Description:
The structure holds two protein chains of two kinds. Chain A is an alpha+beta fold. Chain A has a domain at 89-159 and 262-396: MetI-like (MetI-like fold), CATH 1.10.3720.10. Chain A has helices spanning 20-53, 83-116, 121-135, 139-150, 185-213, 219-237, 262-288, 292-300, 305-335, 347-359, 362-391, and strands at 161-163, 167-170, 173-176, 178-181, 242-245, 248-250, 253-255, 258-260. The radius of gyration of chain A is 30 Å and the shape is globular. Chain B contains 14 helices and no strands. The longest helix of chain B has 31 residues, at 279-309. The relative contact order of chain B is 0.08. At the A-B interface, helix 1, helix 3, helix 4, helix 10 and helix 11 of A face helix 2, helix 7, helix 8, helix 9 and helix 12 of B. Chain B: The chain crosses the membrane at residues 35-56, 103-123, 130-151, 163-187, 208-229, 283-304, 311-329, 335-356. Chain B: GO terms for molecular function: transmembrane transporter activity.
Amino acid sequence: MTHPASRPPAKVKPPFWRDPAKRALIFQLLMLGGVFGVLALIVSNTLTNLESRGITTGFAFLDNTAGFGILQSLIDYSEQSTYGDTFIVGLLNTLLISALGVIAATVIGFVMGVARLSPNWLISKLAAVYIEIFRNIPLLLQIFFWYFAVLRALPSPRGSLSLGEAIFLNVRGLYVPAPIAGAGFSVVLAVFVLAIVASGVFIYWNRQRQAQTGQRLPAGWISLGIIIGVPLLVFVVMGMPLTWELPELKGFNFRGGITVVPEFLALWVALSVYTAAFIAEIVRSGIEAVPHGQTEVSRALSLTNSMTLRLVVVPQALRVIIPPLTSQYLNLIKNSSLATAIGYPDLVSVFAGTTLNQTGQAIEVIAMTMLVYLTISLLVSMFMNWFNARMALVER
Amino acid sequence: MSIEKTPSRVTEKMIDARSAPSDSIGTIAWLRTNLFAGPINTLFTLFACYLIYLLIVPSLQWALIDANWSGTTRADCTGEGACWVFISARLDQFIYGFYPEELTWRVDIVFAIFAALVAWLAIPNMPVKGLVAIATLAVFPFIAFFLLHGGSFGLEVVGTHEWGGLMLTLVLAVVGIVAALPMGILLAMGRRSDMPIVKSICVVFIEFWRGVPLITVLFMASVMLPLFVPGEVNLDKLVRALIGITLFQSAYMAEVVRGGLQAIPNGQTEAGVALGLGYWRNMGLIVLPQALKLMIPGIVNTFIALFKDTSLVLIIGLFDLLAIVQAGLADPKWLGYSIEGYAFVALIFWVFCFSMSRYSQYLERLLHTGHKKR
Lengths: 396, 374
């Protein structure tokens, strides 16, 4: 009796729904069709709706006169400017608050992260309290707190809090002296830039020299001297071409100097303090991620404390810290859009707020706004990939 | 054999162990190592004490010691400290929004069921967790909707424009997370798929939502969504916000799920394939059950972020907890109590978020035992 299975099976081509390759192709085509179908439906609905509401599409509105004022602008802006200008103003304000926020959050975050690891019990607990309080409360609430409860409760200009008759803080904002560059200040700036380049060259040369001879000059101190000392010398030689314009109380308000509006202050403080709480945790875990053996080995090699920190712990900790740190920076940039809640004129507040309401061009305006944030995200993640590739451990 | 006499210079009695020097044990030693180890450390301690004296002491004095607790109007707030009367007078509104007062029992029931379900899931070693989880994800939302919205079983309809306060905050966060979870799982599976078109669609979708701020998403949901649907369909404001939040959240959820899927060794899938399981059964029976367990801390962390982010709906005109307190602050009868209002909202958010983050840390420790590489 022969078993049927013992015979070689006849070559039967499986039906196409059993063939994985064909099935995948069909599935993908169906999905593509579905996505395009939904998109087409949305587009056709939108066009019908726009037509029935009498809204014209297109970007022509960007050339129309805006006709509204903006609280703070980095470029020349007046009510005669166009909607396109409001986009630029909003974008620059977003970039300004993001840049300053990133700097402040990094400084506070690193200080708090190191304080969290301090051997001093009180300092470490205070840092923990700070971290746990500020990262568990919504950012919007913190912005409101700083804006409405703190800055709005400040005295009027006549009763300003002042620091050395140069810096004033009142309900209308912060007034700081404005530097006025005299003749020849541009020379000082040029020397400053040159000094930075020179110190870069010096550090490179110093590395080469160390690689060849094993000797090393104190690069940090020397380059600091080049960057600060040389421009300072030129500054004095040129006859100190820089004066300060102090803010002065005239009538009911301050004149002169630089005015920092309270909206900016509140947003800046809230963003930095909130993000810093997350950064502190990242810094703490980054430093803790460096195995203790590394520190012990560098002790055994008789490196000093500062050398251990600078040459062994920090480079390894940074490898762990930088990726989550960049995503916190991204969060900060995206969170700066909360400006709209207190009226700081950032991109969302000015462009996706006032401009959208005045023109009704919802699609174009929201698309442009989202595109800006998407571009920033993309650039930052490209940087992160580049950095990761550079910093990745070279496995041997 | 004679027993040698013990030499006289050796004592026969054991000497009692002396106690350690008083400066190396107990409170004093602790103080020395933790607060006063060296001049710099001492300086830091003094600095910290000064900070506490400067910040924490006056805050406690204001919030607890000098505060006014009882009363009904602002005339009852006489002292120097906080006026908690503002909170107690408006507590119902802060919790239920504009929900009709005689119907708030319905909200209470939903809160109670939800608390019971969450407690069941959160406490380790409770029986039939799987069933309870399915009930929470699939049955509870419908019960909650029928109770909150009404309109059937003889319950009076309460429109979503009357919802508000803490209740709305919870609705937004819970619906956001429950709706985002299945979408996130599908997106994550798509992102790990071998099919190039599916993969790229999922990557573009995920990266798009992760790249834009939630505010612009909410703006889009409130301004553009009505344009996307046929003219006769009228979307409720709350529904629009929920759609925006769900789409936004599903992208973040997808990344959490992807992390969980990546943690499952390839051998598991290969073993499933060897057993003749197809893709879906392999995923559903082998990979996802293992991955979901690993994902719980990530999901809790995402939920914390979403819970805090729900406060943004204030900007499109929904009255969540923060918005309703903010509106209460503008009431001429209660002007000037903004710090009390913000402190109350902060406390509620803080209690929720802090306990959730502690729970997620606890879970991470619990789950790490068997999976740690080192």
